[in-house]
Amino acid sequence: MPKERLKMSAVDPVWDRIRDEAEAMVQAEPLLGGMVHSTILHHGALERALAYRQAMKLASGEMSEQLLREIAEEAYAADPALGRAARADLVAVYDRDPACHRLIQPVLYFKGYQALQAYRVAHWLWEQGRADMAYFLQMRISEMFGVDIHPAARVGQGVMIDHAHSIVIGETAVVGDNVSMLHSVTLGGTGMLAHRRGLGGAAGRPADEDGGGRARAHRGRGGLRPARRQHGPVAERSLAEPLRALWRAASRSRIAARKPGRSGRPAPCMGALRPGGGLQTGRGGRGPAGWVRRASPAGFPDAPSAPRGTARQGPRRSPGDPPRA
Q: What residue ranges do the domains of the chain occupy?
């Protein structure tokens, strides 16, 4: 007689505890029963619950909930590391955030955790070469959660983003494991090394050993330490350099135009002509060498009036002074 084999079910204590907390929440607050059932109790695994939650949060008129849910479920099925990272992040929030009393809270309420899990799906798309869809998720994550993480950035597991307001993580940034962030954190390179940037996948990302333009976040005492910026051996000029050169040249021209000429008369100041006539500059009141400036109509508070007659050296004459010979 053949022996019957016992089938072992997967043990997931994190998900089992979340389901227990969800059932207790429905009993304590029946008005939230619909949301809790659709988000937690209706699903058999944490990955499927996260895919549903992300789809409901990031959906718009441009992309429906069904399509976003299918994309997220495809990512979780193809890469089990996404589920492990989601559980590590969840435990990190529960351990380090004093405001987190249950594991179900980050899944339902904490936008830092939800944004981080949505980024991981976008990063998976980036690694698959689907850059446009990854950019779309980045846009929606930034719009909904206020967290802007480039899909090419590398973020470890066990990461807690508390409050998650004004978080920017650039393309070349690398965040390690067990990192905690608060609000208003910006991580990224200088933008001067273009060879660090590229499309997703092994062919699009240079090797890490060159150290070009990376900003690393490390865990230390008290949370996140300042990012350490490393520069590679080749310094490439970006678009910002020509713009800075043009700005410096314009500044030198503006200063030279304000200096007196050889005849002792002041040269006209560089500025923009306002519609009503006259020259608009950044100065008000009396100008140099008899140029008169007066208050202008609304919208041009600092615009000078047109010069009266010929520019003269010396103070302005009063109306009661006798005429000059």
A: 13-200+213-230
